[in-house]
Records
---
Amino acid sequence: MSPADAVAALQDALREGFDPATDHQRIADPLANGEFLIMPSETASAAGLKVLTVTPDNPARGLERIQGLFVLFDAETLTPTHLIDGAELTALRTPAVSFAATADRLLDATDPLRVVVYGAGPQAVGHVNTLRSITTHRREIDSVIAVVRSPEGVADPGPFQSILCSGSAEALEATAAANLIICTTTARSPLFDGALVRDDAVVIAVGSHVPDARELDGGLLGRANVVVESIDVALRECGDVVMAIAENALEARSLIPMREVVTGQVKLAADKPLVFKSAGMPWQDLVIAEAAARAFERS
């Protein structure tokens, strides 16, 4: 399925009544050389289980950092029906979630997109590809710039017109000019000064899912519409949110569930940045896996 199809599947699930607050909780279990991520979920029409391993030392071995499998089950009999590569599903799902939450804001505007992506790995590339998929014939993309700690380490520029060094004058200038900033890093502290961000910008942060790591500072979250997948998950797992609240820069009651944005229950203020903070939830994998399985059966 295309990235745009994945975005649409997530939005359709929310509009048809699925509530992420009812989802099963992700389980993280440490291992000697990494960790298991176990993600069970169910909807009215299917059940699913994703098991991933996260192995920080794997890239140095020429192996993927994240590997695993997703099993799709029949909802009534719980019979396994499809087996899907977990890393490929994650690569499709993560940017699809980002743009399911922010597409209305991004597609309502008409000025060309100036995109800055922090990171240049698979999720950075996946977000750019998904953005191109949803904006085709709807909004022009003027520029796509990657910002990384070591530009010389990026062998393939991929979809990026230039690769800038994090913290450089050029990177800060690009960040201040961007109307879409996507953060896909393993950083544990803010990547840039949130005061640089334009009031009309969309900022997506997907790099962390632990309460003591963040990519964005509290000042940015304090002046933004902050959209999250689930308030409970954000307060438990999203360090960007947890630490901003601890600093009294953000109030938990101001968090906006993405379901309310997608269904039109909440209209976001146009004069504030839109920050979408994602940790990844099991229901998202299940929705996309089920849609992909249906497409496979039709092919």
---
Amino acid sequence: MPNKQNATPDTTRQDDLGPAPRQAVSELLRVSPVADDLARRFNEAGYSLALVGGSVRDALLGRLGNDLDFTTDARPDDVLRLVRPWADAVWEVGIAFGTVGCQKQDFQIEITTYRSEAYDRTSRKPSVSYGDSIEEDLVRRDFTVNAMAVALPEKVFIDPHNGLEDLAARTLRTPGTPEDSFSDDPLRMMRAARFAAQLGFEVAPEVVAAMTDMADRIDIVSAERVRDELNKLLLAARPRPGLALLVDTGLAARVLPELPALRLERDEHHRHKDVYEHSLIVLEQAIDLEDDGPDLTLRLAALLHDIGKPRTRRFESDGRVSFHHHEVVGAKMTKARMTKLKYPTQLVKEVSRLVELHLRFHGYGSGEWTDSAVRRYVRDGGPLLDRLHKLTRSDCTTRNKRKAAALSRAYDGLEERIARLQEQEELDAIRPDLDGNDIMRILNVSPGPQIGRAYAFLLELRLEKGPLGPEAAEAELREWWAAQA
């Protein structure tokens, strides 16, 4: 039987909204008639429905998109029964956690049954129990700014934990104690860092203290959930505050230990750049160079490009500090960490390759590269070349304006040379002048390892001398083949 206990929320819980928030909520409901339509279906079936969480928060901030979150006392099977005839599409990916997703017109909708989540000490997945009141649901939300709701279709604003006040103060607090909140779901500690980055909010001191004390609890959360939260943080407009919070609370040491490891010890005898601060600046500068929105590949490479430095640091006899081959070591470390965090294989390859290549340009500093060296640079960058340009430019954080200008001019020159060679030689698809069939015909040999060796010889020839044409390439191939005998 439907639970009607809270079909009509108590209007005494409606906060005395100022004109701006009231207008924001009214505007939300005005431009979203789909919400009232859905609420009527639930009410007619004897259930409550409320817009909740991030949707209410974003409406009050004036940044609501087409993703709408609702909460209800209806159980998931009842939700499915109500939305299937109504929605344009329905999905059940989150139904084990009480969430039914659907699409209606241009709106992406999630409807979640009142619930509470809790981990035991050994579980990597939350256990879900359903509740019967919206108060019970809201108190289990992560932060007060996400614990506000608008009951529909009455349009009653529900804010039992002063979320509106914290929203105005741009502060992240938990509805209950942060210790209880993070015990329920330790991933909320990373979510605090993410919201600090996405929203530009300050995290309340008691929340920071709990994050620091409970950082080890993040270990029970699955790698996939940690990765997804880290991605959301990195894709924020300003990731630095969130990353700094992860490092300062010790959470980064549990999920991305290579980042705090960049805080290398410095002393008066062996001075060198603050690698941690440098990496954050490189990330910020890379973001400034993005063309078409946030680029996770570029941002990960910028953040991780120097993680090989702690393992390769050497104090030289002349007082300098060296980090020889840190790009090679860093690429291997990047691959290992991203694999552990269950990143897709292709993304792991791309980020690791960018880390490996990020120093390649610095051999060009004097502008003396041959055309062959430029071709090899393009070949090695491959489809990542545009990102490699941006990463390399971002990696200049010197305060010496003259040095920075010289590096920028040098890279401008390299890009101009690449553009000229691309126009002349189709560098984007560097290949030998002869293919495998040509090689077998000219050398009168069958398929086998020698064809691969011959192809590699011709490719090196192409990189070294540029396009030769079929006749000249054939002559070079015959000469090479004779030398193999």
